[in-house]
Automatic annotation (TrEMBL):
Record carries keyword Transcription regulation: no
HAMAP family linked: PyrC_classII
Record EC number: 3.5.2.3
Organism classification: Eukaryota, Sar, Stramenopiles, Ochrophyta, Bolidophyceae
Stated name of the protein: dihydroorotase
Pathway(s) served: Pyrimidine metabolism; UMP biosynthesis via de novo pathway; (S)-dihydroorotate from bicarbonate: step 3/3
Enzyme class: hydrolase
Family stated for the protein in its record: Belongs to the metallo-dependent hydrolases superfamily. DHOase family. Class II DHOase subfamily.
One Pfam family linked to the record: Amidohydro_2
Residue ranges crossing the lipid bilayer per the database entry: none
Alphabetical keyword list: Hydrolase, Metal-binding, Pyrimidine biosynthesis, Zinc
NCBIfam families for the chain: pyrC_dimer (TIGR00856)
Domain Amidohydrolase-related: 25-193
Length: 364
Protein backbone atom coordinates (compact mmCIF):
# COMPACT_ATOMS: atom_id res chain seq x y z
CA UNK A 1 0.00 0.00 0.00
CA UNK A 2 1.19 3.53 -0.71
CA UNK A 3 1.01 5.49 2.51
CA UNK A 4 2.14 8.96 1.45
CA UNK A 5 1.94 11.10 -1.65
CA UNK A 6 4.40 13.88 -2.52
CA UNK A 7 6.40 13.05 0.60
CA UNK A 8 9.23 15.30 1.66
CA UNK A 9 12.54 13.38 1.28
CA UNK A 10 13.00 13.70 5.03
CA UNK A 11 10.37 14.74 7.55
CA UNK A 12 6.70 15.21 6.73
CA UNK A 13 4.50 18.09 7.77
CA UNK A 14 2.72 18.22 11.14
CA UNK A 15 -0.82 16.93 10.84
CA UNK A 16 0.10 14.39 8.14
CA UNK A 17 -1.80 11.12 8.54
CA UNK A 18 -0.49 7.75 7.44
CA UNK A 19 -1.72 4.17 7.48
CA UNK A 20 0.58 1.21 8.01
CA UNK A 21 -0.10 -2.54 8.12
CA UNK A 22 -1.02 -3.57 11.65
CA UNK A 23 2.39 -4.31 13.17
CA UNK A 24 3.58 -7.25 15.26
CA UNK A 25 6.53 -7.33 17.67
CA UNK A 26 8.79 -10.35 17.44
CA UNK A 27 10.81 -9.73 20.60
CA UNK A 28 9.13 -8.53 23.78
CA UNK A 29 9.97 -9.01 27.47
CA UNK A 30 6.68 -9.05 29.35
CA UNK A 31 8.29 -10.18 32.61
CA UNK A 32 6.00 -12.08 35.00
CA UNK A 33 3.70 -11.97 38.00
CA UNK A 34 2.35 -8.56 39.04
CA UNK A 35 4.35 -6.86 36.27
CA UNK A 36 2.30 -8.43 33.45
CA UNK A 37 -0.71 -6.08 33.47
CA UNK A 38 1.58 -3.09 32.89
CA UNK A 39 3.64 -4.55 30.08
CA UNK A 40 0.78 -6.32 28.32
CA UNK A 41 -1.36 -3.17 28.31
CA UNK A 42 1.32 -1.16 26.49
CA UNK A 43 2.11 -3.82 23.91
CA UNK A 44 -1.42 -4.99 23.15
CA UNK A 45 -2.64 -1.54 22.11
CA UNK A 46 0.19 -1.20 19.56
CA UNK A 47 0.55 -4.64 18.04
CA UNK A 48 -1.59 -7.47 16.71
CA UNK A 49 0.86 -10.01 18.16
CA UNK A 50 4.02 -10.14 20.24
CA UNK A 51 6.62 -12.82 20.83
CA UNK A 52 6.98 -13.38 24.58
CA UNK A 53 10.60 -13.88 25.56
CA UNK A 54 11.06 -16.95 27.80
CA UNK A 55 13.85 -15.67 30.10
CA UNK A 56 11.61 -15.51 33.13
CA UNK A 57 12.61 -16.89 36.51
CA UNK A 58 12.50 -19.85 36.28
CA UNK A 59 12.87 -19.83 32.49
CA UNK A 60 10.20 -21.24 30.16
CA UNK A 61 12.03 -24.45 29.26
CA UNK A 62 9.14 -26.93 28.89
CA UNK A 63 5.81 -27.12 27.12
CA UNK A 64 4.02 -27.21 30.47
CA UNK A 65 5.77 -24.06 31.66
CA UNK A 66 4.89 -22.44 28.36
CA UNK A 67 1.20 -23.27 28.88
CA UNK A 68 1.32 -21.79 32.38
CA UNK A 69 3.05 -18.61 31.22
CA UNK A 70 0.56 -18.19 28.40
CA UNK A 71 -2.29 -18.46 30.90
CA UNK A 72 -0.72 -15.66 32.94
CA UNK A 73 -0.23 -13.51 29.83
CA UNK A 74 -3.81 -14.04 28.68
CA UNK A 75 -5.14 -13.17 32.13
CA UNK A 76 -3.25 -9.88 31.92
CA UNK A 77 -4.56 -9.31 28.39
CA UNK A 78 -8.13 -9.63 29.65
CA UNK A 79 -7.41 -6.56 31.82
CA UNK A 80 -6.02 -4.44 28.98
CA UNK A 81 -8.71 -1.88 28.06
CA UNK A 82 -7.26 -0.79 24.70
CA UNK A 83 -5.95 -4.10 23.33
CA UNK A 84 -6.07 -4.61 19.58
CA UNK A 85 -8.91 -7.08 18.93
CA UNK A 86 -7.46 -10.52 18.34
CA UNK A 87 -4.07 -9.71 19.88
CA UNK A 88 -2.05 -12.91 20.30
CA UNK A 89 1.06 -14.04 22.12
CA UNK A 90 3.70 -15.97 20.19
CA UNK A 91 5.57 -18.54 22.27
CA UNK A 92 9.11 -19.85 22.11
CA UNK A 93 10.94 -22.03 24.62
CA UNK A 94 14.23 -21.28 26.32
CA UNK A 95 16.93 -23.59 24.89
CA UNK A 96 19.26 -25.27 27.38
CA UNK A 97 22.04 -27.84 27.28
CA UNK A 98 19.57 -30.48 28.51
CA UNK A 99 16.74 -29.81 26.03
CA UNK A 100 15.78 -33.07 24.31
CA UNK A 101 14.59 -34.00 20.84
CA UNK A 102 11.38 -35.22 22.48
CA UNK A 103 10.75 -31.68 23.76
CA UNK A 104 11.34 -30.25 20.27
CA UNK A 105 8.75 -32.57 18.74
CA UNK A 106 6.28 -31.98 21.59
CA UNK A 107 6.48 -28.21 21.21
CA UNK A 108 6.01 -28.50 17.45
CA UNK A 109 2.79 -30.45 18.05
CA UNK A 110 1.74 -27.76 20.52
CA UNK A 111 2.22 -24.97 17.97
CA UNK A 112 5.17 -23.36 19.76
CA UNK A 113 7.18 -21.57 17.07
CA UNK A 114 10.69 -22.46 18.17
CA UNK A 115 13.49 -21.74 20.63
CA UNK A 116 15.32 -18.78 22.05
CA UNK A 117 19.04 -19.47 22.17
CA UNK A 118 20.81 -17.51 24.90
CA UNK A 119 24.54 -18.07 25.28
CA UNK A 120 24.89 -18.63 29.02
CA UNK A 121 25.51 -15.34 30.80
CA UNK A 122 24.95 -13.12 27.76
CA UNK A 123 22.07 -11.04 29.13
CA UNK A 124 19.28 -10.83 31.75
CA UNK A 125 18.28 -14.24 33.16
CA UNK A 126 20.47 -16.13 30.71
CA UNK A 127 22.44 -18.19 33.23
CA UNK A 128 20.55 -21.33 32.21
CA UNK A 129 21.42 -20.77 28.55
CA UNK A 130 23.57 -22.85 26.24
CA UNK A 131 27.15 -23.28 27.43
CA UNK A 132 28.46 -24.85 24.20
CA UNK A 133 26.64 -24.84 20.86
CA UNK A 134 27.79 -28.42 20.26
CA UNK A 135 25.51 -29.54 23.08
CA UNK A 136 22.41 -28.56 21.10
CA UNK A 137 23.54 -29.09 17.52
CA UNK A 138 21.47 -32.27 17.04
CA UNK A 139 18.35 -30.30 17.94
CA UNK A 140 18.97 -27.81 15.14
CA UNK A 141 18.65 -30.60 12.60
CA UNK A 142 15.26 -31.57 14.04
CA UNK A 143 14.15 -27.95 14.01
CA UNK A 144 15.26 -27.63 10.40
CA UNK A 145 13.26 -30.73 9.52
CA UNK A 146 10.13 -29.39 11.25
CA UNK A 147 10.39 -25.82 9.92
CA UNK A 148 10.80 -24.30 13.38
CA UNK A 149 12.48 -20.98 14.16
CA UNK A 150 15.68 -20.43 16.14
CA UNK A 151 15.76 -16.99 17.77
CA UNK A 152 19.33 -16.15 18.66
CA UNK A 153 20.89 -13.68 21.06
CA UNK A 154 23.81 -13.18 18.69
CA UNK A 155 26.60 -12.39 21.13
CA UNK A 156 29.29 -14.41 22.80
CA UNK A 157 29.48 -13.99 26.55
CA UNK A 158 33.14 -14.65 27.29
CA UNK A 159 34.71 -12.06 29.55
CA UNK A 160 37.81 -11.70 27.38
CA UNK A 161 35.72 -10.48 24.41
CA UNK A 162 35.12 -6.73 24.33
CA UNK A 163 31.41 -5.94 24.84
CA UNK A 164 31.39 -4.01 21.56
CA UNK A 165 32.78 -7.00 19.62
CA UNK A 166 30.49 -9.74 20.89
CA UNK A 167 28.22 -9.81 17.84
CA UNK A 168 31.11 -9.90 15.37
CA UNK A 169 32.75 -12.81 17.23
CA UNK A 170 29.42 -14.70 17.51
CA UNK A 171 28.96 -14.51 13.76
CA UNK A 172 32.45 -15.90 13.15
CA UNK A 173 32.37 -18.64 15.77
CA UNK A 174 28.73 -19.76 15.83
CA UNK A 175 26.64 -18.53 12.93
CA UNK A 176 28.93 -19.13 9.96
CA UNK A 177 29.37 -22.83 10.81
CA UNK A 178 25.68 -23.18 11.74
CA UNK A 179 24.26 -21.85 8.47
CA UNK A 180 26.72 -24.01 6.56
CA UNK A 181 25.57 -27.14 8.39
CA UNK A 182 21.86 -26.23 8.56
CA UNK A 183 21.23 -24.02 5.51
CA UNK A 184 17.44 -24.34 5.70
CA UNK A 185 17.10 -23.68 9.42
CA UNK A 186 15.03 -20.56 10.01
CA UNK A 187 17.15 -18.26 12.15
CA UNK A 188 16.40 -14.80 13.52
CA UNK A 189 19.45 -12.90 14.67
CA UNK A 190 17.62 -10.89 17.28
CA UNK A 191 18.33 -7.22 18.02
CA UNK A 192 21.31 -7.01 15.66
CA UNK A 193 23.41 -4.02 16.61
CA UNK A 194 26.29 -3.78 14.13
CA UNK A 195 27.10 -3.46 10.46
CA UNK A 196 28.64 -6.93 10.77
CA UNK A 197 25.20 -8.40 11.43
CA UNK A 198 23.73 -6.52 8.48
CA UNK A 199 26.52 -7.65 6.15
CA UNK A 200 26.25 -11.26 7.28
CA UNK A 201 22.52 -11.41 6.60
CA UNK A 202 22.64 -9.64 3.25
CA UNK A 203 25.87 -11.02 1.82
CA UNK A 204 26.66 -14.37 3.45
CA UNK A 205 23.67 -16.04 5.06
CA UNK A 206 21.09 -18.12 3.20
CA UNK A 207 17.55 -16.71 2.73
CA UNK A 208 16.43 -18.56 5.87
CA UNK A 209 18.30 -16.07 8.09
CA UNK A 210 16.67 -12.83 9.24
CA UNK A 211 17.58 -10.02 11.62
CA UNK A 212 15.32 -8.18 14.04
CA UNK A 213 16.12 -4.57 14.84
CA UNK A 214 15.01 -2.53 17.84
CA UNK A 215 13.77 1.07 17.67
CA UNK A 216 16.45 2.23 20.10
CA UNK A 217 19.25 0.81 17.95
CA UNK A 218 17.77 2.66 14.97
CA UNK A 219 17.47 5.98 16.79
CA UNK A 220 20.49 6.09 19.11
CA UNK A 221 24.19 5.34 19.24
CA UNK A 222 26.44 4.75 22.23
CA UNK A 223 26.78 8.48 22.89
CA UNK A 224 23.26 8.31 24.33
CA UNK A 225 24.58 6.26 27.26
CA UNK A 226 27.52 8.55 28.02
CA UNK A 227 26.53 12.07 26.94
CA UNK A 228 26.34 14.62 29.76
CA UNK A 229 26.83 11.93 32.37
CA UNK A 230 25.99 8.25 32.61
CA UNK A 231 22.42 7.62 31.38
CA UNK A 232 21.44 4.14 32.58
CA UNK A 233 18.04 4.08 30.91
CA UNK A 234 19.84 3.73 27.55
CA UNK A 235 21.90 0.75 28.76
CA UNK A 236 20.90 -2.52 27.10
CA UNK A 237 22.42 -5.73 25.80
CA UNK A 238 23.47 -5.73 23.07
CA UNK A 239 24.82 -2.35 24.00
CA UNK A 240 24.30 0.62 21.65
CA UNK A 241 27.20 0.92 19.22
CA UNK A 242 28.95 3.71 17.33
CA UNK A 243 27.13 5.91 14.78
CA UNK A 244 28.35 3.98 11.73
CA UNK A 245 26.60 0.87 13.03
CA UNK A 246 23.36 2.78 13.72
CA UNK A 247 23.38 4.07 10.14
CA UNK A 248 23.97 0.56 8.80
CA UNK A 249 21.00 -0.74 10.81
CA UNK A 250 18.77 2.10 9.62
CA UNK A 251 19.74 1.47 6.00
CA UNK A 252 19.01 -2.24 6.47
CA UNK A 253 15.61 -1.70 8.09
CA UNK A 254 14.52 0.78 5.43
CA UNK A 255 16.18 -0.96 2.50
CA UNK A 256 13.24 -3.14 1.46
CA UNK A 257 15.12 -6.47 1.40
CA UNK A 258 12.52 -8.34 3.45
CA UNK A 259 15.30 -9.83 5.59
CA UNK A 260 14.86 -7.51 8.58
CA UNK A 261 11.90 -7.51 10.96
CA UNK A 262 10.37 -5.67 13.91
CA UNK A 263 11.63 -6.76 17.29
CA UNK A 264 11.44 -4.11 19.98
CA UNK A 265 13.34 -5.92 22.73
CA UNK A 266 11.28 -3.85 25.13
CA UNK A 267 12.91 -4.85 28.41
CA UNK A 268 11.55 -3.01 31.44
CA UNK A 269 13.17 -2.97 34.85
CA UNK A 270 11.98 -1.15 37.94
CA UNK A 271 13.61 2.28 38.02
CA UNK A 272 15.38 1.45 41.27
CA UNK A 273 17.08 -1.52 39.59
CA UNK A 274 18.32 0.68 36.76
CA UNK A 275 19.60 3.34 39.18
CA UNK A 276 21.82 1.07 41.22
CA UNK A 277 25.45 0.16 41.68
CA UNK A 278 25.02 -2.61 39.10
CA UNK A 279 22.16 -1.41 36.93
CA UNK A 280 20.13 -3.89 34.91
CA UNK A 281 20.44 -4.02 31.13
CA UNK A 282 17.29 -3.20 29.21
CA UNK A 283 15.48 -0.30 27.55
CA UNK A 284 11.74 0.09 28.01
CA UNK A 285 10.21 1.04 24.63
CA UNK A 286 6.87 -0.76 24.87
CA UNK A 287 5.04 2.50 25.59
CA UNK A 288 5.86 3.99 22.15
CA UNK A 289 7.60 1.33 20.06
CA UNK A 290 5.58 1.76 16.87
CA UNK A 291 5.85 5.53 17.07
CA UNK A 292 9.64 5.24 17.43
CA UNK A 293 9.89 3.01 14.36
CA UNK A 294 7.88 5.54 12.36
CA UNK A 295 10.24 8.31 13.50
CA UNK A 296 13.25 6.28 12.40
CA UNK A 297 11.85 5.56 8.94
CA UNK A 298 10.72 9.17 8.54
CA UNK A 299 14.23 10.41 9.41
CA UNK A 300 15.55 9.02 6.11
CA UNK A 301 12.44 9.62 4.02
CA UNK A 302 11.55 5.93 3.89
CA UNK A 303 8.06 5.73 5.39
CA UNK A 304 6.90 3.78 2.35
CA UNK A 305 9.33 0.98 3.31
CA UNK A 306 7.60 0.38 6.64
CA UNK A 307 5.23 -2.09 5.02
CA UNK A 308 8.06 -4.41 3.96
CA UNK A 309 9.67 -4.21 7.40
CA UNK A 310 6.37 -4.98 9.15
CA UNK A 311 5.17 -7.72 6.82
CA UNK A 312 8.47 -9.66 6.67
CA UNK A 313 8.16 -10.72 10.30
CA UNK A 314 4.46 -11.48 10.07
CA UNK A 315 5.10 -13.74 7.09
CA UNK A 316 7.94 -15.56 8.85
CA UNK A 317 5.90 -16.22 12.00
CA UNK A 318 2.55 -16.75 10.26
CA UNK A 319 0.76 -13.78 11.88
CA UNK A 320 -2.56 -12.71 10.34
CA UNK A 321 -3.94 -9.20 10.70
CA UNK A 322 -7.30 -9.48 8.93
CA UNK A 323 -6.30 -6.77 6.48
CA UNK A 324 -6.42 -4.11 9.18
CA UNK A 325 -4.21 -1.03 9.27
CA UNK A 326 -2.95 1.30 11.97
CA UNK A 327 -3.55 5.03 11.57
CA UNK A 328 -1.03 7.57 12.85
CA UNK A 329 -0.87 11.35 12.77
CA UNK A 330 2.22 13.58 12.85
CA UNK A 331 1.22 15.05 16.20
CA UNK A 332 3.47 15.19 19.26
CA UNK A 333 2.75 13.88 22.74
CA UNK A 334 4.80 14.04 25.91
CA UNK A 335 6.13 10.83 27.47
CA UNK A 336 5.57 10.63 31.25
CA UNK A 337 8.63 10.55 33.48
CA UNK A 338 7.57 7.07 34.66
CA UNK A 339 4.84 4.51 34.19
CA UNK A 340 3.41 2.22 36.91
CA UNK A 341 5.22 -1.10 37.01
CA UNK A 342 3.78 -3.84 39.14
CA UNK A 343 1.93 -3.17 42.37
CA UNK A 344 4.20 -0.50 43.85
CA UNK A 345 7.05 0.21 41.44
CA UNK A 346 7.60 2.28 38.35
CA UNK A 347 9.55 2.01 35.10
CA UNK A 348 11.35 4.85 33.33
CA UNK A 349 10.56 4.74 29.60
CA UNK A 350 12.75 5.73 26.69
CA UNK A 351 12.46 9.49 26.12
CA UNK A 352 10.92 10.12 29.54
CA UNK A 353 9.72 13.71 29.82
CA UNK A 354 10.33 14.32 26.12
CA UNK A 355 8.13 14.43 23.02
CA UNK A 356 7.29 11.63 20.60
CA UNK A 357 6.39 13.08 17.21
CA UNK A 358 3.77 10.55 16.03
CA UNK A 359 0.45 9.61 17.64
CA UNK A 360 -1.56 6.43 17.01
CA UNK A 361 -5.11 7.50 16.21
CA UNK A 362 -6.85 4.18 15.59
CA UNK A 363 -7.17 0.83 13.85
CA UNK A 364 -9.19 0.30 10.68
Amino acid sequence: MSMLADQNPKQVAPGTCIKIPLPADFHHHFRQGSLLPSTVAHASRRFVAALAMPNTSPPVTTVERCRAYRRDLEAALALAPEAVPGFEFISVLYLTDSTTEETVREMHREGIKGFKYYPAGATTNSDAGVTDVRNVYPLFKVMEELGMILCVHSEVARVEIDVFDREKVFIAEILRPLVKDCPKLKIVMEHISTSFGVDFILNEAPPSVYGSITPHHLLHNRNAILSQGLRPHFFCLPVLKRESHRVALLNAATGGSGRFIMGTDSAPHDTTKKLSACGCAGVFVGHAAVEFYVEAFESVGKLDELETFIEAGKKLYGVEDGGRVMCLEKRSWRVPETYPFGETGDVTPLRAGEDVTWTITGIE
